[in-house]
Input
Amino acid sequence: MPDCTKEVEKSQYLEKLNRKVTKEMKEFVRSEKGQVKIKLDEKNDLFEITLPNSYFEIIFDSYEAKIYTDEYTESYIISTQSNIRIMYRKKFVYIQKKDDVVYVVTDRNIKLDEMMKNIIKEKDVISFYNEELVGIVSEYDCLKVNYTDEAKDKALIKTNDTLLISEEEDKVFLPYTAEDLERELMESENKTVAELIEENHIKPLKNYKNPMKARFKEAFNLMRYKEKKSFREAVLLGLEVMFESNLHPAIISACRNLQELDIYLDCLDDNELEKFSCFKIVYKAMPMLVKRNNLEFFEQ
Output
């Protein structure tokens, strides 16, 4: 069966589950706040737990779920049921594991992410599914979903076409392609994609504190290591651009080859930077403190 057909079936199943759970919870009489209360419904293969506070953590494995109800102890409750319903006051989380897919329906606040598949939102109820979901944590009245390391790595392998120069974070985020990350992952020794991005594509802003020196260095590296040119040619390019005061050195770092740098410099000379399309360039400056009538204001 084609993968697209399976995804359609999962989406349709999620819609049915969403309607079923939402209807059940409307009719359900919730108990008052108190101790942890557990109920086992063997007929519906349902494990139901009512909590005295909003914290819980669920960790899934192949055959069971471990449910932690106290963040300060290592004690947990084991559920082997396919359906789990967790309630706190007027909020609920309904989880169903079916054919190695985890379906979630909840009226709790939840941190959404791109790995959640076919997100459905109807009034206050959100539902989604994922094959790589391994845990759910409830903290500060918000749910956070955890995935396998392999799934998180896979989700990070995508093209970033933006150079972000951020004074707020004191970092420079360089553009890269999905192919770059796949190649680096193959060449690395037991490193995650997140580690490779941090190591190869995020630079401290202090590296560019001295613009002239940084322009020379980045141009030299571009010519010497990316273009594989001679030491002399690398030095000449560095000398050529080091006095380009309108050229941020991070832009040189972001260029994949000499052609991209030449295109940018042409656009810069013609005052037509909007025509530069090799990658996007975004600056995030720190808010500026200004005084007006002895009052202080922050401006971007």
